[in-house]
Each structure stands twice: as C-alpha cells, then as structure tokens.
Protein: Haloacid dehalogenase
Amino acid sequence: MAPIKAFLFDVFGTVVDWRSSVVAELETLGKEHGQSADWGKFAQEWRNGYLKTTRLIAEGTAAGPLNVDAMHKKILDSLLSEQEWAHLGSAWDEKTRQHLNLVWHRLNAWPDSVEGLQALKKHAIIATLSNGNVRLLIDMAKHAGLPWDTIFSTELFNTFKPNPRAYTEAMRHLSLPPENCAMVAAHIYDLRAAASQGMLTVYVPRLGEDAPELQKEVKAKADGGDVDYVLSSFAELAGLAAGGD
Structure:
C-alpha cells in the first residue's frame, strides 16, 4: 500500500463533539430566559436540517446557501417558528439568534482529538475536508486548539460532501494522488464517497454519530469490510501514520 501523505478529516462529529457543545449553550440560554425544553431534541433537529439540506445541494436536487452559517441561521429561524419551539422563538430576539447561530464556531473537540492530531502532524499533512464554511472552521480550530496544516471547506468548491468534487478538488490542491490521501470520518457515507474517488478510508466511530448497529457493521477490508481501517481513536491514527514512515 502506498504511504499516506495527507489525512483529510470530516470535522462535525468526527473531530468535535457538536452535540454536547450545542446542548450546553442551549441549556445556558434557556436558564437566562427562564425556559425549559428538550434541548437534545432541538439540537438534533437543527443538525438534521443541515444534513438534509447539504445532501440535497450536493446531489444537485435543490438550491440553497453554500455558506453554512447562512444555512444554519435559516434552519434555526424555521425551527423557532414551529409550534413545538415557538415559546423559545418568541423570547429570542435577532441578536440572541445570531449569537446562538455561531455556536457551531465554538464546538469542543473530542478528548482524543487534539493530542492525536498533534502526533499525526509529525508524520503527514492534516487538513479539514468539511462542509463547514471557511470562517467557521478557522474559529473552531482556534477555539478547540485544532492544529490543522490547512483548511479545506466545500464552500471553496461550490458544493457539499458527498459530491465527488469535494474530494477531488482537495487532493488537487494538495498535489497528491488518491492513493496517498486518506479520508477520516465517523460517517460511512462520507468514506464511501471518498473511496469512490480512490482515497483510502479510516472509520473512527463516535458516540451519537452513525447508528450503533451501523457502527458494528462497518469493518476494515482485512475483515471483509468496505473501509481500509477501523480505529477507536486518533491516537491509533497517529500510530498508523508513524508505521508508514
């Protein structure tokens, strides 16, 4: 197998724990306004709207903003107009909504992410390949201490993952062939799309991302699966890269 010279990372859910980060800010906001709600459900519905919208745009079956901040705000306003969440929407003015919308810039890393990335960086290029917009990814890196060599946002490529252009354009900018690039993600759909463009694939299951039954089904090719590696942490990922030196 050719050496892996660059690792490209999905970010939301793979590198950062978006769920607990968003829920914590929602809980704080609720306390400030004397409100209660199922904050976990609200966060998931907000996330689901993003996943649905980016997928439809990537497939070319719908139009919409290619800037995720704008997309998140549109979805947030829509949620707050629904009957279930209207009691929140009536109390949250535009300034409050704008601040909350930027919670996606302030997501915390999974416990193993920063140390694992720092170790991996000694052996290979590490970069994002995320649907998040450029400013979001920069702010998140500063907030969470993520030591990226560079940031690739699909905003730069006028599409979203899993459109093939997202993967091919990132590799083009790195001047590397697919066999020297690995996609790292906690989502099998992302890895299958990367594999279709010739990239190596690394699956890192994360709590609350792919369904538990799907996580159990994903196996490495050595075990008859459809990804190259299944690893439990970024520490193992750094070990993989070190072994290829």
Notes: The first strand starts at residue 6 and ends at 9. The first helix runs from residue 18 to 32. The two ends are 12 Å apart (CA to CA). The mean pLDDT is 94.
